[in-house]
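User: Hi! I'm working on a homework problem where we have to compare a predicted structure to a textbook description. Could you give me the structure for the chain below?
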Amino acid sequence: MSESLPAAVTEEIIPVDEVAARLSVPVSRVFQLVRDGQLLSLKHERDVVVPAVFLDGDDVVRGLSGTIMVLRDGGYDDADILRWLFTDDETLSGTPIAAIRAGRHKEIKRRAQAMAF
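Assistant: Happy to help. Predicted structure tokens:
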């Protein structure tokens, strides 16, 4: 990682075992969700964690996985995707992850497609 991640990425993070409990799946399934591009994780100190904003109750936020997959397909690594999701964008009046959580996932996916290709 050449650039550090925005502080917002680690403001509220959840250990993978807690993510598994919230999603009612085994920890191995959470790692599979990360490998499949449904979710992103990061190392924080010695733990693998997930930003809390990626979860909506007992599910992954709707629209997040599509955005992750578009950006991965476009050559972005997970650190770049995390950086982009948590960086303020004045044209959005906030961050891409905030827009996704607000139900504007189609707009964010279109922006991701434009960036990736």
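For your comparison, note the following. The chain has one domain: 7-116. The chain has six helices and five strands. Good luck with the assignment!
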